[in-house]
Specification:
Layout: E1 8-12, H1 18-31, H2 46-54, E2 59-65, E3 68-76, E4 86-93, H3 102-116, E5 121-127, H4 131-139, E6 143-154, E7 158-168
Bound molecules: coenzyme A.
Coenzyme A binds at residues 1-4, 32, 34-35, 91-93, 98-104, 126, 130, 132-133, 135-136.
Enzyme class: transferase
EC number: 2.3.-.-
Domain N-acetyltransferase: 8-170
């Protein structure tokens, strides 16, 4: 057993978390072949991350260990009326903290906050060889909706398929959040370009 330390805190991200989130994103890019960006492709601009955290339709949930971000879930919402009910989920946990329940807590919090925000559908894509992530998504009720063939080109020329997965939510839930107080998502027309 590798129990989750009590000192891991899960809460909504704010602009003040930009630097620690960016550092985690860089670590994840370097650690995992399952994230979208190759190491070195991510812009090193905490101010841009802070702007996104403060001015977006969706929200981020962060897991902290001693004030360092060790896990991250992003729920991105597009501003357009016909898709404003959908959140696109990105999830990543620092390798040092895998298999301690951090990903589960992040996903639980993301689903809860999505309900509070009035979203009625969550969706994501996941590489077909990412078994731990697929198991986690299935455990939370996501279902496989399709296969995106050759969606990813990994390393030097290896195509990988992705699964499209979706979860329908019942509708608005109460504001009592398991992740601490956070303000409601603002409406603005600035969908972020990089999803994970
Ligand atoms: C996928 C990912 C987010 C899962 O995060 P995680 O924090 O390891 O997830 P959890 O700890 O909640 O669950 C993982 C496993 O640990 C187990 N676990 C949870 N708490 C545990 C504990 N205290 N002790 C032992 N095992 C535990 C879970 O049951 C689960 O087992 P399973 O994979 O056999 O079903 C993580 O592996 C990751 O970030 N991978 C790299 C990036 C990535 O792939 N992102 C997703 C892109 S779509």
């Amino acid at each position: 057993m590798n129990p989750l330390p009590e000192s891991v805190e899960v809460r909504r991200g704010t602009p003040r978390d930009a630097a620690t989130l960016l550092a985690l994103q860089h670590r994840l890019d370097a650690q995992s072949r399952f994230m979208l960006l190759e190491p070195g492709e991510r812009a090193d601009d905490p101010a841009a991350v802070a702007r996104r955290l403060g001015d977006q339709l969706g929200f981020d949930i962060l897991a902290f260990h001693h004030d360092i971000a060790v896990g991250w879930a992003q729920v991105e919402v597009q501003p357009w009326a016909r898709v404003r009910h959908i959140g696109y989920v990105v999830l990543g946990v620092d390798r040092e903290h895998h298999a301690r329940g951090v990903g589960t807590r992040l996903m639980k919090a993301a689903v809860h906050e999505a309900g509070v925000a009035g979203l009625t559908r969550l969706e994501l894509t996941v590489m077909t060889d990412n078994a731990p992530a697929i198991r986690l998504y299935l455990r939370h009720g996501f279902v496989v909706e399709g296969v995106r063939r050759r969606a990813i080109m990994r390393g030097s020329g290896q195509y990988v398929d992705e699964l499209s997965m979706g979860l329908l939510l019942p509708g608005p839930t109460s504001r009592q959040s398991p992740v601490g107080a956070g303000r409601a998502p603002r409406r603005s027309a600035s969908p972020s370009a990089v999803r994970r």
